[in-house]
Design brief:
The protein is mainly alpha-helical. It is built from eleven helices and two strands, in the order H-H-H-H-E-E-H-H-H-H-H-H-H. A hairpin with a 3-residue loop joins strand 1 and strand 2.
Length: 295
């Protein structure tokens, strides 16, 4: 029972991080029809920047209890800087073939990896014992779970409800939905489509950078983390359905739990187990669990 609870909680923690990144991927695709391969590099950049920001603030005497706010603000600040710049670059391929979009976003992966090498080098970096700064909670007999895990899971849950409210019950959400449905008609009735694209892409970027920043107390930041994240994020998207925020949530939970179970029982089949689920979804329901089928 102890092992089962640990697996479930570890899987939900991974699912929370995956949901943040994949929901940004889904949001950008749903509105701008761009498959952003650079989401993994953005995630890694957020992790390194989060480490730098937290280390700098702690050196200045900031209380370690401010770890989560510092990581959140570092991710948001980074996205506010790089998000509009990347979106402006992507405008050149909005109306072009998907191959150009994939090539450009793949080029961004290489660029961001070089940026990380220039500023932080190639060695993995971490925040030491910051993972346990909030202590642990005892669950049942013999189960001690870091409070940080629950904070991240709670943040992801709050974000899911916040996104549902933002997209479904606000004027901005109505404009985003209209733009996603028909951008030319939206522009014809006075919507500044380019402005919506900037805001949506920056929000999607922020989800990636914040996800990366929140991941680093529990693991080290490395150049490989971006590539690993791309595989998991696209598995989430395929399982849940491209363009579906609900699919991002369910897909993240499935992938997170499968990874946790595989690591705890037979680590050699971790990726194989995820790929088998992806293949099953592609065969039985190619549009994903909550995706829309082709017209």
């Amino acid at each position: 029972m102890i092992q089962i609870v640990n697996i479930l909680l570890g899987g939900l923690f991974q699912a929370a991080l995956l949901f943040l990144v994949s929901s940004g991927l889904q949001l950008v695709f749903g509105v701008q029809k761009i498959v952003n391969l650079a989401c993994g590099a953005i995630y890694a950049l957020g992790a390194y920047f989060g480490i730098a920001a937290a280390s700098h603030m702690f050196d200045l005497g900031a209380p370690r209890a401010l770890l989560v706010p510092i990581l959140l603000l570092s991710g948001i600040a980074l996205a506010a800087v790089i998000g509009p710049v990347i979106e402006r670059l992507l405008r050149t391929v909005y109306e072009r073939d998907e191959h150009f979009q994939l090539l450009l976003t793949f080029a961004l992966i290489l660029i961001f990896e070089d940026v990380i090498r220039i500023f932080w080098g190639t060695s993995p970096q971490q925040l030491g014992d910051a993972y346990l700064v909030y202590g642990r909670i005892g669950i049942g007999s013999g189960i001690l779970v870091p409070v940080y895990n629950f904070i991240v899971i709670g943040f992801a849950a709050v974000f899911a409800f916040a996104m549902q409210w933002l997209i479904g019950h606000t004027r901005f959400g109505a404009i985003v939905r209209a733009t996603a449905e028909n951008s030319r008609m939206s522009a014809a009735v006075g919507v500044c489509v380019s402005g919506i694209y900037v805001r949506v892409f920056t929000l999607g970027t922020a989800l990636g950078t914040v996800g990366g920043a929140l991941a680093i107390p529990a693991s080290a930041a490395s150049l490989a983390m971006g590539i690993d994240l791309i595989v998991d994020a696209f598995a989430v998207v395929i399982i849940g359905g491209l363009g579906s925020m609900k699919g991002a949530l369910y897909g993240a939970v499935i992938v997170g739990l499968v990874k946790a179970i595989a690591i705890a029982t037979l680590p050699e089949i971790e990726m194989l187990a995820i790929y088998l689920i992806v293949i099953a979804v592609l065969v039985l329901k190619p549009s994903g669990l909550f995706g829309k089928g082709a017209a």
